[in-house]
Each structure stands twice: as structure tokens, then as C-alpha cells.
């Protein structure tokens, strides 16, 4: 029996990619951008991945990474002041937050963990306040005992200290803690390096030869 189960949030419990795609396409159309949808999503995703990593590496603050993303996505729009950049990003953010949805298999998996007697924590590389809002709006907050966001820790996943800090919050030794997440490197290999057990949630079903426990749905976990 697991003393604690740690879940990643984005693209594990909540459909982050679906929300991001819907938001950027709708927002871009509102602004008169007529690029093909896939191109818009590709550009936004590349900028988000690059600059969010800089935030995780403590090169930028949370607000700074938002500002640089919006300025690079809209180079033809004069966003000289931070207030202008923040207001423009807020247009996109409103659409993004409206599009948040939990995966259908998320709440049942959290409930199975609770029925098994485990403490439930979400370990996310996101900003604490924003991820807390996400849990609330998607109806998952009451299913979770602890939210552990690396914005309040010394390091982000996959650094082992992030997992050890989450174990400490959950009151669980690493060898009795299970990590479940969609990122092979950030969630699974990071957890294993910290002494936890881990399951890779490969929703696309395309991962092969990873050498780790892999499932394609949360319906497949915590069944014993």
C-alpha cells in the first residue's frame, strides 16, 4: 500500500494542451491573425516551452516569462510597457482559464488513491496560485490533500529535491510514495532518481522501450 500518491497536474489530471490550443487559436482570431491553426499553436507552444523553462530555471520571474512570450508572439504590436504586455496577455489568459477541463479519468483515480488510504498530493512545476485556481475550477481541489508547486521550492522537477520536498509535505517516505505523470523525464525519471516509484502516463500510447511502468489512462492505475 502506498503511503502517498503524487500526481502531476498539467496533461495528467487537466487537459493543458487542449486548453492552450483552444485559447491561443480563439484569442489570435480575435486579434485578426489569420495564420493556420497548427502554425499558431506551434509558435505559441515553442515560446511557452522556451520561456517557461527559463522561469523554472529562475532566470525569469513568473510575470517576466509571460511578458516575453507575448512580445515575441506579437512582434508587430508595440508592447513597450509592462502594463501593456500584461493587459494583452490577460486577453489570452481569460480564454485559457475558461478552457480548463479535467480529464474524465482524473477524479476517479484520485478517489481510488484516497480509498486505498494514501495521502494525495499534486506536484507541479507551475505557479502555486495559478495551479490552485486550476484545481478549483476543474473541480479537483476537494480530491487533493496537498498542492506542492515548485514555484515555492528550491528546484523544479526533475530535480530530486522537488520530489523529496513533496514527500515531506505528504508525510511519506520516498520508497512508499508513487509518482504519476505524463512527462517521462520530468515526472518519471526524476521521481525514480529520488527513490520513489513512478508510473508514466502516456496518453498518446506512442511511447516504447522506456524501461518504466507505462499506462495510457489513469483508469489503469491504483487498481490493486
Automatic annotation (TrEMBL):
Keywords of this entry: Hydrolase, Magnesium
GO MF entry, a single one: hydrolase activity
UniProt protein name: HAD family hydrolase
Cofactor entry: Mg(2+)
A Gene Ontology biological process term: small molecule metabolic process
InterPro entries: HAD-like_hydrolase, HAD-like_sf, HAD-SF_hydro_IA, HAD_sf
Amino acid at each position: 500500500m502506498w503511503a502517498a500518491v503524487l500526481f502531476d497536474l498539467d496533461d495528467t489530471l487537466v487537459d493543458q494542451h487542449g486548453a492552450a490550443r483552444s485559447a491561443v487559436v480563439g484569442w489570435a482570431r480575435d486579434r485578426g491573425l489569420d495564420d493556420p491553426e497548427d502554425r499558431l499553436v506551434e509558435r505559441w507552444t515553442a515560446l511557452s516551452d522556451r520561456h517557461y523553462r527559463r522561469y523554472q530555471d529562475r532566470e525569469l520571474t513568473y510575470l517576466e516569462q509571460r511578458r516575453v512570450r507575448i512580445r515575441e508572439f506579437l512582434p508587430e504590436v508595440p508592447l513597450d510597457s509592462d502594463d501593456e504586455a500584461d493587459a494583452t496577455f490577460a486577453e489570452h489568459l481569460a480564454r485559457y482559464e475558461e478552457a480548463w477541463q479535467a480529464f474524465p479519468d482524473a477524479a476517479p483515480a484520485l478517489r481510488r488513491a484516497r480509498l486505498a488510504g494514501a495521502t494525495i498530493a499534486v506536484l507541479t512545476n507551475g505557479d502555486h496560485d495559478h495551479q490552485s485556481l486550476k484545481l478549483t475550477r476543474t473541480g479537483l481541489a476537494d480530491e487533493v490533500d496537498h498542492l506542492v508547486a515548485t514555484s515555492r521550492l528550491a528546484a523544479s522537477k526533475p530535480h530530486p529535491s522537488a520530489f523529496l520536498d513533496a514527500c515531506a509535505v505528504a508525510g511519506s517516505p520516498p520508497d512508499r510514495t508513487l509518482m504519476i505523470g505524463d512527462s517521462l523525464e520530468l515526472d518519471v525519471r526524476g521521481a525514480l532518481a529520488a527513490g520513489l516509484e513512478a508510473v508514466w502516463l502516456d496518453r498518446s500510447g506512442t511511447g516504447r522501450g522506456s524501461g518504466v511502468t507505462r499506462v495510457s489512462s489513469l483508469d489503469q492505475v491504483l487498481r490493486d
